[in-house]
Amino acid sequence: MKKIVIVAIMLLAAAAMVTVAAYLIFKKRQRPAPEIQKNEAFYLTGKVLLNRKDSDEWQEAERDMAFKDGDTISTAKDSCVEIKLGRDEKNFIGCKDDTTVKFSKIEEAGDKKIELEKGKVMLLVDALDEDSKFEVRTSAAVCGVLGTGFEAVSSEDITTIKVYDGRVYAKTIGIMGIVSTEEVIVEEGTMIRIIRSSPPVKPVPLSKEDLEVWRSWKGDLDAHMFRTFSVYLDEGSPENHYSPSGWVGDYDAIRRMSWGKDPHSGKTCLRFRYTGRMSQGAGWVGVYWQNPVNNWGDVKGGYNMKGARKLVFWARGKNGGETIVRFGMGGIGGIYPDSAKAEIGPVVLEKEWKQYAIDLSGKDLSYISSGFYWMTDKTTNPDGVIFYLDDIQYE
User: Which of 107, 122, 209, 352 is 20 to 30 A from residue 240's alpha carbon, by CA?
Assistant: First the structure.
């Protein structure tokens, strides 16, 4: 009888174990897939090579290229690559020349880890996931973000960490590759040099030259990320970010049409006619492209155009020889004024399409609600004028 009872108990225990195992497998299958976050190289110069995980071959890295865990990137002399990654792609890595970096963990949400095999990286970390960290491992140290901006330089068994924003923790690595449990906090505005297997020393202040290099790199990020931004591309295009809604001066003397005959590109261009009539007694006319529609600075709108170097557009006259007094951007005042204004003119148009450019160098483009405008007057065009515009965009 005892044997039967013992066997029964063993069978019940085995059945319980099978049930638990099945439950755990089920729960594992039910676990949601990890969130994959985008990353891409948005800027590169010179020679930048990429070695994909489990591959023996190196290939040329390209702009807009994405990276996977285990990939390695290497820059040559006078070369660099900048990468955005993580939550909303608001974290940035700048790999300077003669640098090799392995992306240990960058794809999934949560912790981010890279290995700096040699060279120099600059990091701006603005959007970490909750309860996560961003770590950089070198041959001599492991450092992680407690703030937002820092730099790591690795050369043989020496690692230099420079902290520009926030704080960074640093731990030394021993000869056997064991990471020390002791950490030192490197505060904003200081730097530390760590020698492999040696206890960390006290951080020292950054130099003015270091701070200037950081400000320069951080300031260049917007310019490096900027592509093109359309004011007008084609009638009804979702890429039209501004509307030609601000008619000024003798506005009743302005006629606008979407013109399908001989556009510069696409299906349509814009045809404007100024009749020359002093309908409002001003003697001049103009049209502003605004965001939102009819915004004269009364409401918040517009766009941050930082990084744009110029505003380009294509124009032609009906017969050639037509004069437009000014083409420009910005300049709206009000409660929410534009942060900049730039213009060219007078411009004598040709009969064939020609591209014109407005230089935006040195302009504060952080808030632009008037993306483009033109103006002319009765003195210059007593009998009026007809002209065409197309492909207006920031570059």
Answer: 352
287, 386: one domain: yes
pTM above 0.85, yes or no: no
Which of 329, 252, 255 is CA-nearest to residue 288? 329
**Per-residue pLDDT tens for 161-180?**
999 999 999 999 987 789 98
Do 153 and 279 reside in the same domain of the chain? no
Instruction: Please state, in angstroms and as integers, the Cα–Cα distance from residue 95 to each residue in 135, 143, 297, following that order.
Output: 15, 16, 41
Decide if 322 contacts 348 (C-beta within 8 A): yes
Asked whether residue 211 falls in the same domain as residue 271, the answer is no
Euclidean distance between the first and the last CA atom of the chain, given in angstroms as a whole number: 90
CA distance 118 to 23: 47
Nearest to 81 by CA among 70, 68, 69, 97: 97
Q: Is 390 helix (H, G, I), strand (E, B) or coil?
A: strand
Structural domain count of the chain: 2
C-alpha–C-alpha distance, residues 226 and 87, integer Å: 19
Question: Residue 347, SS3?
Answer: strand
Residue 43 shares a structural domain with residue 167:
yes
